[in-house]
Write a structure and sequence with these properties.
Blueprint: E1 13-15, H1 16-28, H2 34-46, E2 48-50, E3 65-70, E4 75-82, E5 93-95, H3 99-104, E6 112-116, E7 122-131
Parallel strand pairs: 1-2, 4-5
Antiparallel strand pairs: 3-4, 3-7, 6-7
Length: 137
């Protein structure tokens, strides 16, 4: 039973090494977070994969700063997308292992996605701005 049709999801892009790391992370979290595990693995499976230097700067990657709007409420949010160990919602860092975090990865500025929240209600999230952190390496 799928509550979200893949056809209603915009195309997404991911960095090859992040897709591998996120796959491992999602598999490790399967017992603890089955909903997020499934959502994240489905997103990775449908993503177009790129080498890090070839991903467009307006795509949400790990450690990107993302401004987005919940289109139902009109409320705007701004978070850095992080791995669970670095997450701190009060400091503006959201984990990839949250429903919202899993929904944001790979989207471009201007795209919207219908996505379930923690309570299973579908929300429309629209990406307003993506800012990349300077990467070392």
């Amino acid at each position: 039973m799928k509550s979200i049709k893949a056809s209603r999801r915009p195309p997404i892009h991911m960095i090859d090494t992040e897709a591998d790391a996120l796959t491992d992370l999602a598999i490790a979290a399967e017992d603890r977070l089955p909903q997020v595990n499934e959502l994240l693995l489905n997103e990775i499976a449908r993503a177009t994969i790129h080498a890090a230097g070839r991903i467009p700067g307006n795509v949400v990657t790990m450690h990107a700063q993302v401004r987005f709007v919940d289109e139902a409420s009109g409320k705007e949010y701004s978070y850095e997308l992080t791995y669970p160990k670095d997450a701190d919602i009060s400091a503006g860092r959201i984990s990839i292992l949250t429903p919202v975090g899993a929904g944001l990865i790979g989207l471009r500025e201007g795209q919207s996605i219908l996505w379930p929240d923690r309570d299973g209600h579908e929300r429309a999230l629209k990406i307003v701005q993506v800012s990349q952190k300077a990467q070392n390496g």
